[in-house]
Design goal:
Radius of gyration of chain B: 23 Å
Distance between the termini of chain B: 53 Å
Largest sheet of chain B: 2 strands, antiparallel
Number of helices of chain A: 11
Oligomer: heterodimer
CATH architecture of the largest domain in chain B: Orthogonal Bundle
Order of helices and strands of chain A: HHHHHHHHHHH
Number of strands of chain A: 0
Strand content of chain B: under 5%
Largest sheet of chain A: none
CATH architecture of the domain at 69-238 in chain A: Orthogonal Bundle
Strand content of chain A: under 5%
Shape of chain B: globular
Structural class of chain B: mainly alpha
CATH class of the domain at 69-238 in chain A: Mainly Alpha
CATH superfamily of the domain at 69-238 in chain A: MetI-like
Radius of gyration of chain A: 23 Å
Shape of chain A: globular
Largest interface: A-B, 80 and 82 residues
Distance between the termini of chain A: 53 Å
CATH class of the largest domain in chain B: Mainly Alpha
Number of strands of chain B: 2
Strand order of the largest sheet of chain B: 1-2
Helix content of chain B: over 70%
Number of domains of chain B: 2
């Protein structure tokens, strides 16, 4: 009896695992399949480096270079803003606080991570975009800059938690020695903790980049969604927002529809390349 | 001298960055809650959206219920699969290669942007399998999205169970099945529930996957899993995106944030209780 129970359980667990792994691999294959149809008709280099996105035009009018640039641009702006703030906060969390204060700041960061992106987009649209329009007299507040600022807020929790973890370890390892030598805390952090955390800082950048590039709602609500070459203070379009806005309208099986899949595919490839670069950097730094 | 200046700059940097983070969170929560409370009353919470265009007046009750249903369904769907996968990889999988492959696939999935998942769900479930845009399709898509999240956490929890307990159980001749069901799962129960709750909050706040797969501008409270559904984040997006009603948008945002905060706090309490034992 026990044996039967045992093997039934094992069977169920095995089946469900197989099922989930199959679903997941199926998704990847499925996206590939839907995009390959497109790449048969449109040359991939042309798709990536062409400048016009006109879904109703002919095949050579479908290209996403400005959109790819927009995706990267917004995320990079986000990182540039978020990184110094995030690292600074991680230093405070790992080295200057303990006990209650640490718990409070940590849970604040957790709350930041738990707020859904649509809320950030909402606030970005109502506060940030308006602010840019009124204070700096931009013709339109919906811009790469606005997207970058909103994204930077969303990236903060990732950067903070990734950096803090390793900084805490480094700090614990060396604080005894440096105290014994009478070295000041800030000197020790600058000369030992920060250089030793290089790898986790890099890792956090990649993690945040991945998050930022895949982010749909918050970015979509504040960048204006115009498929033109991105300028810091002008409108732009990102791949996720392109998909979200146009997928519902695209006729099934049309070039437009497959083009959207192809841009999703390109997005995943960009993320993959970033991750591979990270992997190589990690290896080299050891 | 140089050292002194560097020290000052360094301290200024870290203090100001902490202040910025705290200010941001206080501002975001404060802004939404302060503006939102003005819009929230009983009618808003328990009423249907009314007016032309829809949503100008009235409440968001179907959206609240819809969001909760989406969260519950997607959690059930994802956690059954995720917990099984975690149990398999931790206790049953005897080949390292297989385990590595499973991990690789899960990692790949965790990196797929949510909108791409939404696009997948839309094409497969709605276009190919011809299921209506419904609670079911949205919940499946959300479930796929939170699957890696739950799996990674549950696997970590299972790995952290003291191995001497497991080995003693085996040594007493207790079968693997009984060890897992009677010993390991009860130990991890609180942590696993806490992880699932967090994932549920994540699913509830996600908009991108459900834009294409299920959320609609107006639907009554769903009667079955095949009826279309309203969701709070999507409702918020429509209210602001189409400029329908700012007042109600604030209210919706506040309700969404309050529900999510409650879920997060609940998850924290459940996870914390175990630590004290």
């Amino acid at each position: 009896m026990k044996k039967i129970e045992n093997s039934i359980f094992k069977g169920i667990v095995r089946f469900l695992t197989l099922f989930s792994v199959l679903i997941l691999s199926f998704i990847i294959v499925f996206i590939l399949k839907e995009s390959i149809v497109f790449f048969k008709e449109v040359y991939i280099i042309k798709f990536i480096f062409g400048r016009k996105w006109n879904p109703l035009g002919s095949a050579d009018k479908l290209a996403i270079f400005p959109i790819i640039l927009g995706t990267i641009y917004v995320s990079v702006i986000g990182i540039i803003i978020a990184l110094p703030i995030g690292i600074g906060n991680a230093i405070v969390l790992s080295s200057y606080t303990d006990g209650k204060v640490k718990r409070v700041i940590r849970s604040i960061v957790d709350i930041l991570a738990g707020i859904p992106s649509v809320i950030y987009g909402f606030i970005g649209l109502l506060v940030l975009v308006k602010f840019l329009e009124i204070k700096f007299e931009f013709p339109t507040g919906e811009s790469v800059l606005a997207g970058g600022i909103v994204l930077s807020i969303m990236m903060l929790p990732f950067i903070i938690s990734t950096c803090e973890e390793s900084m805490e370890k480094v700090y614990a390892e060396y604080s005894g020695y440096s105290n014994a030598l009478g070295v000041s805390k800030s000197y020790m952090i600058r000369k030992i903790v920060l250089p030793n955390s290089k790898r986790s800082i890099l890792a956090s950048i990649v993690l945040a980049l991945g998050r930022g590039m895949g982010e749909t709602m918050a970015v979509m609500m504040v960048i204006g969604n115009a498929p033109i070459m991105p300028k810091l203070l002008g409108k732009c379009q990102t791949i996720p927002s392109l998909i979200a806005l146009e997928m519902g309208m695209a006729e099934v099986g049309s070039l437009h529809y497959h083009g959207l899949y192809a841009s999703g595919f390109i997005l995943m490839m960009i993320l993959l390349i970033i991750n591979i670069i990270l992997y190589i950097i990690k290896r080299k730094l050891i | 001298m140089k050292e002194k200046i560097e020290d000052k700059i360094f301290k200024l940097w870290i203090i100001s960055s902490t202040i910025i983070v705290v200010t941001i969170i206080v501002f975001v929560l404060g802004y939404i809650l302060r503006k939102g409370f003005g819009a929230i009353d009983l009618e808003f919470i328990f009423g249907n959206p009314k007016g032309i265009p829809l949503g100008v007046e009235g409440g968001i009750f179907p959206a609240i219920i819809g969001s909760l249903l989406l969260m519950i369904l997607s959690c059930i769907f994802a956690s059954i699969l995720a917990i099984s996968t975690a149990i398999y990889t931790v206790f049953y999988c005897s080949f390292r290669k297989v385990r590595d492959i499973i991990h690789l696939i899960i990692q790949c999935m965790a990196g797929v942007p949510s909108i791409v998942l939404g696009m997948f769900g839309y094409t497969l479930l709605i276009l190919y399998l011809r299921i209506n845009r419904s609670l079911l399709t949205a919940a499946i898509t959300l479930g796929i999205m939170i699957f890696p999240y739950i799996e990674v956490r549950v696997e970590k929890i299972l790995n952290e169970v003291n191995s001497s307990i497991i080995n003693s159980s085996y040594a007493l001749g207790i079968s693997k099945f009984h060890t897992i069901i009677r010993l390991i799962l009860p130990i991890c129960k609180a942590d696993i529930i806490s992880a699932i709750l967090l994932a549920g909050g994540f699913a509830m706040g996600a908009t991108a996957p459900i834009i294409l797969t299920g959320a609609v501008i107006f639907a009554p409270i769903p009667q079955s899993i095949f009826s279309p559904v309203m969701a709070l984040p999507f409702h918020l997006y429509i209210l602001t995106g189409e400029g329908i009603s700012l007042q109600n948008a604030y209210g919706t945002a506040a309700v969404l944030i309050i529900i999510l905060l409650l879920i997060n706090i609940l998850s924290l309490i459940i996870g914390r209780r175990k630590e004290h034992r």
